Amino acid sequence: MRNVTDRRGFTLVEIMIVVTIIGILATLALPAFQRVTLRTRGTAFLSEGRVFSEAFIRYAQENGEFPAASGRATFPAAMAGYIKEENWNRTTPLGGNYSWDDRRRARRSGHNGAIMVTRGTMKMREMRLIDTWLDDGNIRSGNIQVRSGGSTIYYMVE
């Protein structure tokens, strides 16, 4: 006769308990993962904004003025020696595409111009969090400004 304690493997109940515990842990970890992902996207946008902003400032120092505004998702031709076109034309960390807006719109807030993200895919609550983490916490002021329900985002050039 076989000894009952010699059995190998797991029972269905034991497997269901393990699956349930893993599911609960995954549910608890998901919001933290989403926050980290959002913070990473915001930081990547801020980093690209700084690089592009420095290029526009260098252009203005060398040419006496900032370049004219570019169309939506259009590389500003004057920036050819300052920014790699493929970096400008790729999808931004916040979704959408980059555009350059000269002084007219940014002048109201005391800036020289703005690097715009048009057709951004971030929700307003996500943009508010990003602004809280990386700027002044107000999406209407500071270096990062948001308009049109989150679909237009400005990185202001000082």
* Strand proportion: 5-15%
Mean pLDDT comes to 87
Q: Please give the order of strands in the largest beta sheet.
A: 1-2-4-3
Summarize the main sheet: 4 strands, antiparallel
- Into which percent range does the helicity of residues fall? 40-55%
User: Uncertain segments of ≥5 residues (pLDDT<50)?
Assistant: none
State the secondary-structure class: alpha+beta
Rounded to an integer in angstroms, the radius of gyration calculated over CA atoms is 24 Å
How many extended strands?
4
Span from first to last CA? Answer: 86 Å
Task: Tell me, briefly, the overall form.
Answer: elongated
State the domain count: 1
In N-to-C order, the SSE pattern is HHEHEHEE
Q: How many helical stretches? A: 4
Structural summary, described in words:
With 158 residues, the protein is of the alpha+beta class. It has one domain (11-157). Helix content is 46%, strand content 13%. The chain contains four helices and four strands, in the order ααβαβαββ. It has a four-stranded antiparallel sheet with strand order 1-2-4-3. β3 and β4 (152-157) form a beta hairpin. α1 crosses α4 (124-134). It is elongated.
